[in-house]
Specification:
Largest sheet of chain B: 5 strands, mixed
Largest sheet of chain A: none
Largest interface: A-B, 56 and 65 residues
Strand content of chain B: 15-25%
Strand content of chain A: under 5%
Shape of chain B: globular
Shape of chain A: globular
Order of helices and strands of chain A: HHHHHHHHHHHHH
Strand order of the largest sheet of chain B: 16-15-17-13-18
Oligomer: heterodimer
Distance between the termini of chain B: 30 Å
Structural class of chain B: alpha+beta
Number of helices of chain A: 13
Radius of gyration of chain A: 24 Å
Distance between the termini of chain A: 7 Å
């Protein structure tokens, strides 16, 4: 297993290198740069002056030199400063990552709390009313886009309850209660969407496992239904579910921008999208690499989890 | 007017850019929340809201916290580096200027654009208007924050700041007009201009010309980390994408002001969330674009105070590559202008609450907003005549062209499509539309090398006549984005800078506008008249003629007080 993990880690290097080349290249292909976005608007900056500032920021270097410089900064864990704000990227990330992580973790937790029980219930009571309800909920979760659901939630909360989560992010350590109030609705919106795919996968895999011989044997032995389902069937049904959940966590880290925007949370999504729009090269590149690294790690973690869930699996 | 004209609004538009064209928006929350109610409301008589809210006559109350959910974030807090409304929604409260426009509570109507001293008590020009002498207010102190620690504000500070502005950055155009600055004593600043300019005080009254300190710039190397000045508020906190907190400056020179202890600006990029924040009392001021939005809010907040302000100008229009064929032919420009139904845009896109569109604020040359007739013949919707004129110009079968734009606000896309439709139907001109992101749009637009057409802009922050005429229309100005190159305009805008008499200024400005309309130099498009909406306890927060208190006109917040 250690050899397997090491081999996977080594394989991650070319993946990350390729990702770095793609994001670096894409940012350079896009027209304009951060200076255009920041000062071009005024119409007050001459080409000479812009050229001088670009030189100060090393944006005038040939692309390969810019790339190597950036890779070195990444490797030495000093990703540099934002061109747009001047803030060290590490500081920006230190503010944004916890927000997104908290949102993702809460959404995932809520998603699983909704998805697994309903998925199991749907499977064990196939084609019953509760199964149909569960499937409708799952299809709704897949069909309703985050922005629509989020807007509805916040608008109707304001109209019906004259309440919305307090705007102006407060960290968990500053005020746990207020922080949870701020995260509950966005996490529920995200979690509802996440739960849909997980719920459908749980239902289908549990259905499949319930038809296995060993489950029939368990029933024949006269075991209690709860034990058959939760102890014998569910654990083996979870492998595809874990795969899905692992993928969703990656998507969550990179794809919370809409919910962050609606609920005014200063997370990774808003940071990255703003940086893309303003051509803040180092911020975009660092964020993308962070997400790529996280995805690679999550995939590895998911693969390693298989053996724990199913001892028959061996890594070679 | 939108005070967010040139401010990148990634968040507000991100969502739209991601999702608008998915076709959900029309079916989504807006329709569910407001649709049914709107239909009911439209069947009733439209409520009318005051166009001007006079200052409160009650004695102001001290204290309290004013909170506002804002669409904007400051990209940086260094005033040399940006003209974004994200910064100037509070920079005018932290910083001061030499002179300023009167606040809404000091005037009797929105057309008063006269100047008043801010840190300057008085100012006067030499007979040739090349030397301007400003006498500073004695006893003004910098904020009592290190490294300034409340030291006295003196003439050398103005000299340092203006010279730094001229050296580099987004404000340099204004200050590069200065040839030299003398400080004969600590309260006198004498500014020598390269050319005469009777309107120079207006230029240093613009909201973007806030004064900053030598100490901070020299210690930090830039102004990105701290904002310390002499204004009514001290910057207590700035957390990007979260909040800006301003605390009352107890040592402000204007004793007794400001009234409010804290002003909190919450970064809230989503429009529905800002509206929800207002409805639930988390936000006390909101800007709304349309009458239907106002009606929606008033369903839950019947006591909200609504100010239906009227715009003095439109910041957006169709910019033509008028230095190249076919748009270098005035007949083509006139034909295009006559083929566009502007009133339809006002009626449909802006729900009837908009202006037809013009570029120079009317308050500088007449007392009332322009009527359709006052634009002259080339701005009337006359498709048949337009077609005839285009044929005379050698394009009887129309032509193909392009138009690129950035969607500053959702209605803009509808306007662009209506123009495309009008030009195709009336002139057989095929317009290929390209919607760009903010940075690409800017890069291409301000470079001024594009062909065809663009949905052009003029800067949103400016109030002054010089900015709106010479700086945006003179052929040699770097801000002449519409690529105006007209000797008559050059002569008139230069003459305006040398004309001290206000009546004469108005006459020249009128000539400039007439010339612009006649030659269709900038093809202005309709624009909304927005609404400022306040919680009922907010006093003196109405918008001024060209400035909203939630945007570039933020310095007026020093006059706001809470009656609760």
């Amino acid at each position: 297993m250690y050899k397997y993990a090491l081999r996977r880690l080594l394989l991650a290097v070319p993946v990350l290198l390729l990702s770095s080349l793609i994001v670096f290249g894409l940012m350079r292909v896009m027209p304009g740069d951060a200076l255009t976005a920041l000062m071009g608007e005024s119409g007050n900056i001459g080409e000479k002056e812009l050229a001088k500032i670009r030189k100060d920021l090393r944006l005038d270097l040939p692309y390969h030199e810019q790339y190597l410089l950036w890779v070195w900064q990444m490797v030495s864990l000093h990703p540099g400063d934002s061109i747009f704000t001047g803030e060290p990227i590490a500081v920006s990330l230190a503010k944004a990552v916890p927000v997104t992580l908290e949102l993702a973790a809460l959404a995932m937790a809520l998603g699983l709390v909704i998805a697994v029980p309903i998925g199991v219930l749907s499977a064990t009571r196939q084609d019953s009313a509760s199964d149909y309800v569960g499937r409708v909920v799952a299809v709704s979760g897949l069909s309703l886009p985050d922005f629509w659901l989020g807007t509805l939630v916040i608008t109707f909360a304001a109209i019906w309850f004259h309440w919305i989560p307090a705007i102006g992010y407060v960290s968990f350590w500053e005020s746990p209660l207020r922080n949870l109030q701020q995260f509950l609705l966005p996490a529920a919106v995200l979690g509802f969407r996440l739960s849909a795919a997980t719920m459908r996968m749980t239902r289908s895999t549990v259905l499949e496992v319930l038809r296995e011989d060993y489950v029939r044997t368990a029933w024949a032995k006269g075991l209690e239904g709860r034990i058959v389902v939760y102890k014998h069937a569910l654990k083996n049904a979870l492998i595809p579910v874990v795969t899905i959940v692992g993928g969703q966590l990656g998507v969550l880290l990179a794809g919370t921008v809409v919910v962050e925007t609606i609920f005014a949370l200063p997370g990774m999504g808003r940071l990255t999208v703003e940086a893309i729009l303003f051509r803040d090269y180092p911020v975009v590149q660092t964020n993308v690499m962070l997400v790529a690294g996280t995805l690679v790690s999550l995939n590895l973690l998911v693969d390693l989890t298989y053996a724990w869930l199913d001892p028959r699996i061996r890594y070679q | 007017m939108h005070d967010d004209l040139l401010a990148p609004q990634p968040s507000r538009l991100d969502r739209r850019q991601f999702l608008t064209h998915a076709g959900w928006t029309g079916l989504g929350a807006g329709a569910l929340v407001a649709g049914a109610g709107r239909r009911r409301a439209s069947a009733q008589a439209k409520p009318s809201y005051p166009e001007w809210i006079a200052a409160s006559t009650s004695p102001p109350k001290r204290g309290g916290t004013l909170t506002r959910a804002s669409a904007w974030d400051p990209p940086v807090i260094d005033p040399r580096l940006t003209q974004s409304v994200g910064l100037y929604q509070f920079a005018g409260l932290v910083g001061s200027r030499l002179v300023r426009y009167r606040f809404p509570d000091e005037v009797s109507g929105p057309a008063d654009l006269s100047l008043k001293g801010d840190l300057a008590e008085s100012w006067q020009a030499s007979p040739d208007f090349r030397v301007w002498t400003f006498k500073l207010r004695p006893g003004v102190k910098w904020h009592n924050v290190a490294p300034l620690n409340g030291r006295e504000f003196v003439a050398a500070d103005v000299k340092y700041c203006f010279e730094a502005y001229a050296r580099e950055g987004a404000q340099s155009f204004t200050f590069q007009e200065i040839e030299g600055i003398e400080t004969p004593d600590k309260l006198t600043v004498r500014i020598h201009l390269k050319t005469p300019n009777v309107l120079f005080p207006q230029n240093v009254a613009e909201p973007i010309t806030v004064l900053f300190s030598k100490e901070v710039l020299e210690e930090d190397g830039d102004l990105k980390k701290r904002m310390i000045s002499t204004g009514p508020y001290i910057l207590k906190e700035h957390t990007r994408k979260v909040r800006v907190v301003l605390a009352r400056n107890p040592d402000y020179w204007d004793k007794g002001r400001p009234y409010i202890d804290e002003y909190v600006i919450l970064s809230t990029p989503d429009a529905a969330t800002r509206m929800a924040a207002f409805r639930t009392g988390q936000s006390e001021i909101i800007w709304l674009a349309s009458p239907s939005e106002v009606e929606t809010v008033r369903k839950t907040n019947a006591n909200a105070v609504v100010h239906a302000y009227h715009n003095s100008l439109a910041p957006f229009g169709v910019a033509l590559a008028q230095d190249k064929p076919p748009f270098n032919d005035v007949r083509v420009r006139r034909a295009l202008s006559m083929a566009i139904d502007r009133q339809k845009q006002v009626d449909t896109v802006f729900e009837g609450h908009g202006i037809l569109g013009w570029g120079v604020p009317y308050v500088y040359y007449q007392d009332k907003p322009l009527t359709a007739a006052s634009f002259g013949p080339w701005w009337q919707y006359k498709p048949a005549e337009a077609k005839k004129l285009l044929a005379e110009a050698g394009h009887p079968n129309g032509f193909d062209t392009t138009l690129f734009y950035y969607e500053y606000f959702p209605q803009m896309t509808s306007q662009v499509q209506l123009v495309q439709q009008d030009l195709k139907r009336n002139l057989n001109i095929n317009v290929k539309i390209t919607k760009l992101d903010y940075t690409t749009y800017y890069g291409r637009y301000v470079e001024s090398k594009w062909d065809g057409m663009s949905w052009g802009f003029q800067s949103g922050h400016a109030i002054g006549l010089d900015e709106r005429t010479y700086q945006y229309m003179h052929s040699r100005s770097t801000k002449n984005f519409f690529r105006v190159n007209d000797p008559v305009i050059d002569e008139l805008t230069t003459k305006l800078r040398q004309t001290p008499n206000v009546a004469d200024q108005r006459a020249i400005t009128k000539k400039i506008v007439d010339r612009e309309f006649d030659q269709v130099l900038r093809m202005w498009m309709p624009y909304d008249n927005g609404f400022m909406v306040f919680q009922p306890h907010v006093r003196n927060a109405a918008a001024g003629a060209l400035r909203r208190t939630d945007g570039y006109g933020s310095s007026a917040i020093a006059r706001v007080w809470l009656d609760r």
